[in-house]
Amino acid sequence: MSALIHVKKVWTNFLSQGGFDAHALSGLRVVSVSKGSCLAELDVAPQHLNRLGGCHGGLLSTIVDVGGSLAIAAENMHATGVSTDLNVSFVSGAKLGDKLLINSRCDRVGGTLAYTTVEVSVGDQVVALGRHTKFVRLAHKANKEMKLDGQA
């Protein structure tokens, strides 16, 4: 299976679980994937805005979380672990109708932790920079035991 198809299946699985990711990022599109990296995009919609009309920081934090997970999936992992640390620097703003480009990279997957970097931009303008660390020890075990659809 190609890396692109694999990551799209992981993302579809995330969405099928419902919850916050499905609510906030249902419009996220995986555009391209190579080993350890993922490019996705999201059009800023009314539900993504803060009270001042800009892209909400919580949305950008969620994008860093999910982007990091998809970069780990691009390392051919079905399960992507649980967050242990997330850092986001808000560099500039985005507004309604902007297309957010989400460039995620898995810097390292070890036996216990995975480290990712996520850049969110609108065109050439960086909106947010994030780092995401995930605990993956149990994910390694799950990846050996589960199919992509979550069935054992």
From TrEMBL:
GO terms for molecular function: fatty acyl-CoA hydrolase activity. Keywords: Hydrolase. The keyword Hydrolase applies. Residues 53-127 form the Thioesterase domain. CDD domains: PaaI_thioesterase. The keyword Hydrolase applies. NCBIfam families: unchar_dom_1. Belongs to the thioesterase PaaI family. This is Thioesterase domain-containing protein. It comes from Mortierella alpina. The lineage of its organism: Eukaryota, Fungi, Fungi incertae sedis, Mucoromycota, Mortierellomycotina.
